[in-house]
Structures are given as structure tokens and as C-alpha cells.
Known about the structure:
The chain is an all-alpha fold and 99 residues long. Helices cover 83% and strands 0% of the residues. It has one domain.
Amino acid sequence: MDFLRFNTFIAQDVLVFFYYIFAILVPLFLWALRPYIIEKFPAVKTLEKSLSLKYILLLVTIFLCMELCLRMVFEAMIGYFDMHDYLFEIAKSLQGKTL
């Protein structure tokens, strides 16, 4: 029955793995697809020609805020799963006892 525990299927290691996929690999993948996106969407092509320092700083700020939000979501999920484990252990230790 230990195999069927919640922590076996959704462990913190899995969450950390997916966090790094989203935080590192997805931006790199999008950067690699940048020429394709510029070719397929004409609005992006005109925007790229007129990029100024303000727009670049805005895009970098938005990217950093998205990374922060992603980090907060994964930290909340890790905290939730820790609470589940602690409550499971408390319920297991109190099983059969009367208050």
C-alpha cells in the first residue's frame, strides 16, 4: 500500500524537475523558434524593426515577472503536498485513538 501513497506519484523531485523545464528549457526553445515566429507573423516582423530600449526593458520585465509567478506556483504546490503528507502522518498516528 505504500506504493499507492500520494507522495509516490507527485513528489517534490518531480515538481522541481518540471519547474526547471519551464524556467530554462521553454525560454530557450522559444528563442530557437524566434526566426520561425518572425517569419509567420508579420506583426512581429514590424515590431522587431522598431524595437527600442523601452520595449526591450518592458519585455524583459514581463519575462521576469512570469518567471516569478511560475516559481510561486511551484512553491505553493510543494507546500500543499507537504501539508498533505503531514496531515496523512497525523491521521495515521491518531488512528484508533480517542480524543
